[in-house]
Amino acid sequence: xxxxxxxxxxxxxxxxxxxxxxxxxxxxxxxxxxxxxxxxxxxxxxxxxxxxxxxxxxxxxxxxxxxxxxxxxxxxxxxxxxxxxxxxxxxxxxxxxxxxxxxxxxxxxxxxxxxxxxxxxxxxxxxxxxxxxxxxxxxxxxxxxxxxxxxxxxxxxxxxxxxxxxxxxxxxxxxxxxxxxxxxxxxxxxxxxxxxxxxxxxxxxxxxxxxxxxxxxxxxxxxxxxxxxxxxxxxxxxxxxxxxxxxxxxxxxxxxxxxxxxxxxxxxxxxxxxxxxxxxxxxxxxxxxxxxxxxxxxxxxxxxxxxxxxxxxxxxxxxxxxxxxxxxxxxxxxxxxxxxxxxxxxxxxxxxxxxxxxxxxxxxxxxxxxxxxxxxxxxxxxxxxxxxxxxxxxxxxxxxxxxxxxxxxxxxxxxxxxxxxxxxxxxxxxxxxxxxxxxxxxxxxxxxxxxxxxxxxxxxxxxxxxxxxxxxxxxxxxxxxxxxxxxxxxxxxxxxxxx
Length: 499
Prior knowledge:
By secondary structure, the protein is α/β, with parallel strands linked by helices.
């Protein structure tokens, strides 16, 4: 009974604000020289501001300050003083009309003050911020796309950002780190802070290898190929960015339809990819030139007209080498690159030397990645490589994986082997980490080998951390190809559970 009584007393003390959580990291002794005029000092959970050696302000009574910093958080070109602090109650002098009575326990708040002409003036005094915060920091990190009317554009492609009506402006972010290490970003939005979504989820599928039995079934069923993606469409919709390796060139000429060794895939397969909601396709494969430049030109134009990023190939009209595309989601800029080991002995046309991006010139690839890194937050390489049907990476894959790691790539997703291979996180001597899927196998094909009827969906999440952007979660979901009566071929998650 004594223990129960002690617990009840402790609970009552907590509810009445008699003590605070033990995980709090109280800063002390920190000082900031602001504008060369104001000195801000935090000591003993109190902040004082001096001007010309005179104390002109101290933090309010009843407020315990955990951390303080100074930054131009609202973009007005004048620094503010930002306090991470605790006080009893979730609200200030006023509270929402639906709240009858404020709480009588400690809660965390953000207070922002402006310093002007020897005065400290309140600028923003938050209600309870809705999360536990162990650390606070400000970083000028990333960019916000904004229209001339001031409307934020959270996810626009690079080429859209170059339009006249779009301005890219730097934003200071308030980074709040939870006791478990998770980082949330808050950005000043007109008046007060708005919490940002600071993570982006990817799903990537392997070789979309359209053999004759597959395209014959689709052509004989109203020329509709949506059956290829019917079991993954919901998963694609839930992801922020979805990618698939379009192994074979598209064509709208029935005379150019074809199976191995020279593929030609009905354009309606591309319609099904668009209908499924994919954001990007990788087309630098060993079959990219199976239908010559006509196949490349048609495939590139087809996907671009449907606002799907087409990686790894360039049409005859694209005279300048373009090694990567950039896509923006939730304020994070991703550079996407795609290379293949070769083109099955078909020579690259002299009139279109960049028609297929190759893993050949190491120096050039390193330069590509360096340029991509300078223009993005995260670099992802899609590599068509390896030995067919092998379930372990070969020396060629290991060599290029090391080159990618040395160049600062963040994620590598491999295809081509038609078999699943391992995935792992590599680290260089500087501590940089790179997630590499050596091969995620087939998405769909008519290959009879056992290793070819199972593939995988690579899924990973990129999140904002105090050190920048990083992969914070990753996995490989097994997929299985199933042939049904009548010749219908479908793909579904092999474990029976859809994300």
